[in-house]
Amino acid sequence: xxxxxxxxxxxxxxxxxxxxxxxxxxxxxxxxxxxxxxxxxxxxxxxxxxxxxxxxxxxxxxxxxxxxxxxxxxxxxxxxxxxxxxx
Length: 87
What we know:
By secondary structure, the chain is mainly α. It has a domain at about 25-80. The chain is built from five helices and no strands.
């Protein structure tokens, strides 16, 4: 099963021009994207099938780059509430 998967995997990533892309890169991207959405550390761990928080913290660290968006979030929500109150 794994051999068949990797045969198709290698062909696919070569076709898109990413010869050095690994399956673990996709796992890392999935963890980072989940953290960017605001998923908690436990939620990211659950999605990745991990029980060790230390390995998971790298995704939370990557999410810190979104600080501006997170900071602006409450303002966006409050503006939306004000608009809905006008109706």
